[in-house]
Amino acid sequence: MSQVPGIIVGVDGSGHSQRALEWAAKEAALRKATLTVLTVNQAVAGFWGGTLSYAQDPEFTERAREAAQAETDKVLAGLSGSRPPSVTVKAVTGIPAEELINASRDADMIVVGSRGAGGFARMVMGSVSSQVAQHAHCPVLIIRGQGRD
């Protein structure tokens, strides 16, 4: 596994993850830290553990990477002032919380939204952000949405 130092932000296209990406980009610029934007194509958990693979996974993962790249480009274009010295957009297929926790091993900080695209409005914090907060190997910052979302 390649080293991923600096700040990692998990994105899934939700409003919460967009706010997390905006915060992480500003913080990476301020700290002069690298920024890794990580999106996860949700894998299906296997009955006996692990994940199931499907022929379409590479295509779906690439689509997720393209969407995350577009979102990242938009956020970077909106930054006033400095930018992070290096920005990498990665997409993997897996279980989102597991992938983020694994990525946190080599990170200085991980940033996630409090709820993702699959979040229920009544939940204060989504299952992915909760698992990452409990098990990450580095400091975790959880960004709440605006208002009552």
Rg on CA atoms, Å: 15 Å
The CATH first-level class comes to: Alpha Beta
Oligomer: single chain
What string, H for helix and E for strand, traces the elements in order?
A: EHEEEHEHEHE
What shape does the CA trace take?
A: globular
* Unreliable residue runs: 119-125
CATH superfamily: HUPs
Number of domains: 1
- Supply the helix-strand structural class: alpha/beta
CATH topology: Rossmann fold
How do the strands line up in the largest sheet? 5-2-1-6-7
How many strand units?
7
Q: State the helix count.
A: 4
So, CATH architecture?
3-Layer(aba) Sandwich
Average pLDDT metric: 84
Helix content: 25-40%
Give the biggest sheet.
Answer: 5 strands, parallel
Percent in strands:
15-25%
Key structural traits:
Rossmann fold; 5-stranded parallel sheet; 4 helices; 149 residues; alpha/beta; single chain; 7 strands; two-stranded antiparallel sheet; globular
List the helices and strands and how they pair.
Elements: E1 7-11, H1 15-31, E2 35-42, E3 44-45, E4 51-52, H2 57-77, E5 87-94, H3 96-103, E6 109-113, H4 127-135, E7 140-143
Parallel strand pairs: 1-2, 1-6, 2-5, 6-7
Antiparallel strand pairs: 3-4
Helix pairs in contact: 1-2, 3-4
Q: How does this structure look, described?
A:
By secondary structure, this protein is an alpha/beta fold. The chain has one domain: Rossmann fold (3-Layer(aba) Sandwich). Helix content is 37%, strand content 23%. It is built from 4 helices and 7 strands. The strands form 2 sheets. It has a 5-stranded parallel sheet with strand order 5-2-1-6-7, with helices on both faces. Strands 3-4 form a two-stranded antiparallel ribbon. Helix 1 crosses helix 2 and helix 3 packs parallel to helix 4. The protein starts with 6 loop residues before the first strand and ends in a 6-residue tail after the last strand. About 5% of the residues have low confidence.
